[in-house]
Design brief:
Structural class: alpha/beta
Number of domains: 2
Distance between the termini: 28 Å
Oligomer: single chain
Strand content: 5-15%
Number of strands: 16
CATH architecture of the largest domain: 3-Layer(aba) Sandwich
CATH superfamily of the largest domain: Alkaline Phosphatase, subunit A
CATH class of the largest domain: Alpha Beta
Strand order of the largest sheet: 12-11-13-1-14-15-2-16
């Protein structure tokens, strides 16, 4: 089908807007969403798998923003780092990984090996199973001094679950016979990604400068934090010094560090603090000269000298297809999700494609987003509509962070408000797009806001979900329906023909338009 001259394709990705019909604990069902309701009733729509194997994750693993945007942009199932590393552990190639072995063997001379990352089974940023595999490998290689710097979750897992996970780690260390927990820090500090350097500084001073509070037992520290109203995400960086024992060493000269988070975005700031020679974000009293600094995946081009599981490049992604057609395109989001509509949507590519413009809208600087559920949605919409009005871009993509970022706080009324804010933005966007005979596609990357209360306990839920997500395709009168059974990797193959672009061979996802047949090369 030929595209009308200048007919724009606008892709709206609502972060954390899952599909669930049960109203219990459902902030989307509780919200007033007249614009969404009207679009859903008027235009073809369907439900897409956004978790587990259809997006390249292990079965039963909830989706996340990185995975969602990768699959949407790639137009195929993208096997995630979690799956790749799990397979390496299962087939034994993990223990022969030369990057990991070099870091561990260098510690045999008496220097310390530090294992640093999120201790959580959540599978979004890390996996406890990967940490256990590292400890077993260190034991097999006779690394004599192994220290774990444990970051606690509370966002992708329930907010009071870290005591159990860290307790399990203590038991595994005892069973393996190698390792000691040297520090505990909530991810609020150790894994900030929004350039709130004062948070990163607290974690840095604990793991590198051995400063800050101490506690004799990691599990007791966490349970005492709960008693003070501090949940997992916000546990103050603390060194663990058991009674009668020598304090654990800070990360020092000649030591090796393995950062076992596999998701890049929240691992970058602390990595930069440890590695960068030029530094002005906060005063560093010391920067250790490390023998090895290993990241599980490539957090950023040129950041870490050693990567255990390098990226597997993706080609012929959505933005690349648009660029190859000679079209202008525009990607925008606020800070919290900017990397997702650029780096992740573009298949792990940092640089924009030819003809691709980007604009970051700063997220509000508040402690937690329940305090401002509006976030920067209105400013993001202003930017998008200005570009649409200019008429130069044929493809525009925008992310609204509100349902996910506010949903992570577990505050139900604020999450309802976040949903209503995004609905208002849809109302502002739909008219201008459709009046230009444009295509407006609205979907999500994973679930969150549709399930915020634990039915059994009544406790707030802060994590992502296993829910599917909706897809609406508005403005394409030639589309009479969308088939069921799709996945996120089917979005691009469905949309490209609507604006006259050929679906490349690498996009093995399905075209979900009702008159089409499933792709025989479909993966997943």
């Amino acid at each position: 089908m030929s595209a009308a001259p200048g007919r724009p394709l606008v892709l709206v990705i609502i972060d954390g807007w899952g599909y669930r019909t049960d109203p219990f604990g459902n902030a989307i069902a509780a919200a007033k969403t007249p614009n969404w309701d009207a679009l859903w009733q008027r235009w073809p729509h369907t439900i897409l798998a956004a978790a587990g194997e259809p997006v390249g994750l292990p079965e039963g693993q909830q989706g996340n923003s990185e995975v969602g945007h990768l699959n949407i942009g790639a137009g195929r199932v993208v096997y995630q780092d979690l799956t790749r590393i799990n397979r390496a552990i299962q087939d034994g190639s993990f223990t022969t990984n030369q990057v990991l072995r070099a870091a561990m063997q260098s510690s045999a001379s008496g220097h310390a090996l530090h294992l640093m990352g999120l201790v959580s089974p959540g599978g979004v940023h890390s996996s406890s199973q990967h940490l256990y595999a590292l400890l077993e490998m260190a034991h097999a290689l006779r690394a004599p001094r192994v220290f774990v710097h444990a970051f606690t979750d509370g966002r992708d897992e329930p907010p009071n679950s870290a005591a159990g996970y860290v307790g399990e780690l203590v038991e595994r260390i005892r069973a393996i016979g190698t390792g000691r927990i040297a520090s505990v820090s909530g991810r609020y500090y150790a894994m900030d990604r929004d350039k709130r350097w004062e948070r990163t500084e607290r974690a840095y001073r604990t793991v590198v400068e051995a400063s800050g509070p101490t506690a004799p037992d990691p599990v007791a520290l966490i349970t005492q934090s709960y008693a003070s109203g501090i949940t997992d995400e916000f546990i103050v960086p603390t060194r663990i010094v058991p009674a009668g024992e020598e304090p654990p060493p800070a990360i020092g000269d000649g030591d090796s560090v393995i950062f076992f988070n596999f998701r890049p975005d929240r691992a970058r700031q602390l990595s930069h603090a440890l590695l960068d020679e030029q530094w002005d974000h906060f005063p560093r009293n010391r920067r250790p000269k490390l023998a090895h600094f290993v990241t599980f995946t490539e957090y950023e081009k040129g950041l870490a000298p050693e990567v255990a599981f390098p990226d597997e490049p993706l080609n012929q992604v959505l933005a690349e297809v648009v660029a190859d057609a000679g079209w202008q395109q525009f990607h925008t989001a606020e800070t919290e999700k900017y990397a997702h509509v650029t780096y992740f949507l573009n298949g792990g590519r940092e640089a924009p494609f030819p003809g691709e413009d980007r604009l970051l809208v700063p997220s509000p600087r508040v402690a937690t987003y329940d305090l401002k559920p509006e976030m920067s949605a209105s400013l993001v919409t202003d930017v998008l509509l200005d570009r649409l009005a200019a008429g130069e871009d044929r493809f525009l993509v925008v992310n609204f962070a509100n349902p996910d970022m506010v949903g992570h706080t577990g505050v139900f009324p604020a999450t309802v408000r976040a949903v209503e804010v995004v609905d208002a933005m849809l109302g502002r966007i739909a008219g201008p797009v459709l009046s230009r005979r444009g295509i407006l596609a609205i979907s999500a990357d994973h679930g969150n806001a549709e399930l915020k209360v634990d039915r059994a306990t009544g406790a707030p839920l802060t994590a992502h979900t296993l829910s599917p997500v909706p897809l609406i395709v508005a403005g394409a009168d030639e589309v009479h329906g969308l088939r069921e059974g799709g996945k996120l990797g089917d979005i691009a193959p469905t949309l490209l023909p609507l604006v006259g672009l050929e679906v490349p061979r690498a996009m093995s996802g399905d075209d979900l338009r009702a008159a089409t047949r499933p792709n025989p090369a479909r993966s997943g």
